[in-house]
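In the current project phase, the collection of sequences with tokenised folds has grown. A representative record is quoted in full directly below:
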Amino acid sequence: MMRQIKYFQAVVRCKSFSEAAEECFISQSAISQQIQALEKELGVQLLHRENRRFSLTPAGEHFYKKSLILTADFERMCQETVRIANKDNAELRIGYLRGYAGQELRMAVAGFSEKYPDVSVDIIHGNHEELYDALRSGRVDLVLNDQRRAFSDEYVNCILTTRECYIEIAARSPLAYLEGVETEDLKNIPCILVASPEQRKNERNYYQEIVGIKGDFLFAENLEEARLLVIGGKGFMPIEGDENEPGFTATLRRIRLMRRGKPIKRNYCAFWKTDNSGYYVEEFADMLKSEFQAANERQYEI
């Protein structure tokens, strides 16, 4: 019955028997027969057919929604059963910057999980030094991090992109109308950083000494909390990620961060140990690199 349910889901999702059949690699007549068999076994009509059109019956709509939950639970149960039987839980452990706002990592994780559903993906976030320590101690396999230190031969150092730095500021701020703002011009506005209590000193020192921000600092535990502070007019936030993040809120504006008339730039990299270049690590790194390349191309088109 599970196969018949998946055929039914495909027909509803595609809104077409022919497209669903193509997706499921069977003939249109076969998928129609399978759904009729499902209806016969259930003893109810799931689809109301009229000429070449169809629509869900009330029972069919209920069954479709519940079947999606059932299928997700069934697939999860099968994956866990295989892992228990094999006693060798294939996993990929990823770390990423606590304040990173780009979509590239999300897209890469989604693509990897779709291709390797039996591989457990565990994700942590942290500031630069926390990620470095996690990678060095073997608690993660790969990290998406900014480059703050010289490359080491101990690690594979894959530069994903070089991005101009931006700040987020409340849309109602007069600064929101600028295309770029000098670090010197921000000295009277608090800088809001996303950092754990243990990393606040390190993050403050980096932004003071390397980036050149000289004002006061406020700290948030996560990106959402930091953005609420920005929206509330408490300060500005240096942002990690893409200038053109989809779904960007109208209550915030992004402005280039400048120093002496030039945009400040930063490298974002994937790092992993050279002695841990397993298949899944390199496969995920390739997916991540592809997502960054696609994002760079979209940004160039804009």
About this structure: The longest strand covers residues 155-164. The chain has nine helices and 14 strands.
